[in-house]
TrEMBL record:
Residues 27-467 form the Aldehyde dehydrogenase domain. Keywords: Oxidoreductase. It comes from the Bacteria. PANTHER family: ALDEHYDE DEHYDROGENASE-RELATED. This is Phenylacetaldehyde dehydrogenase. Belongs to the aldehyde dehydrogenase family. The active site is at E249. It comes from Agrococcus jejuensis. One of its GO terms (molecular function) is oxidoreductase activity, acting on the aldehyde or oxo group of donors, NAD or NADP as acceptor. Pfam families: Aldedh.
Length: 475
């Protein structure tokens, strides 16, 4: 089943949006807070993929021929459509993925879809003159067809990160959402297809077999993937015969280094949200915190005081600030890692005791102190609401620990001395290093990882170039 143009106005309520994207007989999608089935998602086949490819091939040349200015106007209209459906989309995200409506939650995510569309539309990427004599220029053209596979943690927002620049550059896009959160991305497709020409954007929901078919298909000049390092490696192997360009935003285990000159109370709130945004289910969240011995106890206590006040509950409850984990498998990973830390002698400052009989995938906000720097909770990506806090005294040693894993998505340095923090940031192996914050992204600031966290850049001018091919004219 593919989603094509729908009737304007029918997608501005939760019930109307859900009716437009769900089927009577398909893959069940459950609310992670209650375990209740909220809808059934279509299950696309390789034949559906071939049909979508044929439609995209037919539509893409005319879409590219419209030119940047006209395509940008259409993308602004698509952003307007998202704004009209924002409340419905936010409720759907909360019910399917689990994040709360408020704070950096589903309303924030729905707004981000619109923001990324508008930024892609407004970003300039003009022909550049490289030499005056003899004249040499470089411009960027559409790849043709872009295939995109998204994750379950920020399903609608990351779909926008992928599709907005690709469409802006004149490509046609075929997207496969995670099988855990297909509805949110199907909804984005339905909303945008009220405005876009038919065939330019297709969302196909399905299982891993569909993902394998997409990554191995010879139609795509560009593949984009956000997800685990293991799956990223499989995509590289599966696509090698066709040599598509790749953008891979893969797993992370972001370190934060707190220097001894900080005011613990002043940084505690930002430390907390750097780690626990989306209940810790964010690739570039703060996942291991290294705190200097001089301020260790103060930072741990300040974090505990903040964390204890942040309510966790059902996503559509207006009072919730944190929600459940999206999948039972992820809950099991977090539970295993915390139990291992306990057995190893680490001190649980807060949380660590889930209600194993309750419905939903809830794990309490958990802070684990006095933990060995090489414990599994530190060196494995937990992707959930459990933060290990490691004590250190030697700066060179802790930078070595921060750089010692085969990941490099993000990192942060916390200090009252901005110049000193930048010196340390320059020594950290990560695609982005934040100072006195963690995990914030901006649609004009390039974002991407190194090492096992993937390669390629998204956002801003560099993100537009990544979904295009360079064309040099010399002479």
């Amino acid at each position: 089943m593919t989603l094509e143009q729908t009737t304007t106005g029918s997608l501005e309520t939760y019930e109307g949006l859900l009716a437009a994207i769900s089927v009577a007989d398909g893959a069940p999608v459950t609310d992670p807070a209650t375990d209740e089935v909220i809808a059934h998602a279509p299950i696309a086949t390789p034949a559906d993929l071939d049909a979508a490819v044929a439609a995209a091939r037919a539509a893409q040349p005319a879409w590219e021929a419209l030119g940047h200015a006209r395509r940008s106007e259409i993308l602004v209209g698509a952003a307007d459509a998202v704004d009209r459906s924002a409340a419905a989309l936010a409720e759907l995200i909360s019910r399917e993925q689990g994040k709360p409506l408020n704070g950096p939650g589903s309303r924030f995510e729905a707004g981000g879809v619109s923001a990324w569309l508008r930024t892609a539309a407004a970003t300039e990427l003009s022909e550049e003159t490289l030499l005056d004599e003899p004249r040499a220029t470089i411009a960027y053209r559409a790849v043709g067809l872009v295939g995109a596979i998204g994750p379950w943690n920020w399903p609608a927002l990351i779909a926008a990160w992928q599709l907005a620049p690709a469409l802006r550059m004149g490509n046609a896009v075929i997207m496969k959402p995670s099988e855990h959160t297909p509805l949110s991305v199907l909804a984005v497709g339905a909303i945008l297809n009220q405005v876009l020409p038919a065939g330019v954007l297709t969302v196909l929901s399905g299982d891993r077999d569909l993902g394998v078919a997409l990554t191995g298909h010879d139609a795509f000049g560009k593949l984009m993937f956000t997800g685990s390092t293991r799956t990223g490696k499989a995509i590289v192997a599966a696509s090698a015969a066709n040599l598509p360009r790749l953008t891979l935003e893969l797993g992370g285990n972001d370190p934060g280094i707190v220097l001894p000159d900080v005011d613990a109370q002043a940084i505690a709130q930002d430390l907390f949200w750097g780690a626990f945004i989306n209940t810790g289910q964010t690739c570039a969240a703060l996942k291991r915190l290294y705190v200097h011995d001089d301020v260790y106890d103060d930072v741990v206590e300040a974090l505990r005081a903040v964390a204890a006040q942040v309510p966790m509950g059902y996503g559509v409850d207006e009072s919730s600030a944190l929600g459940p984990l999206t999948t039972a498998d992820q809950l099991a990973i977090v539970d295993r890692l915390v139990e291992d830390a306990k057995a190893g002698g680490a001190r649980v400052v807060l949380g660590g005791e889930p209600d194993r009989a309750a419905a939903g995938n809830f794990y309490p906000t958990t802070l684990v102190a006095d933990i060995d720097a090489h414990a599994p909770l530190v060196v494995e990506e937990q992707f959930g609401p459990a933060l290990p806090i490691v004590r250190y005294s030697d700066l060179d040693e802790v930078i070595g620990l921060a750089n010692g894993l085969d990941v490099g998505l993000g990192a942060s340095v916390w200090s009252a001395d901005a110049a000193r923090a930048r010196e340390i940031a320059a020594r950290i192996q990560a695609g982005t290093v934040w100072i006195n914050s963690h995990g914030g992204v901006h649609p004009m600031v390039p974002f991407g990882g190194i090492k096992g966290s993937g390669y390629g850049l998204e956002f801003g001018v560099e993100g537009l170039k990544a979904v295009a091919v360079p064309h040099v004219i010399n002479g």
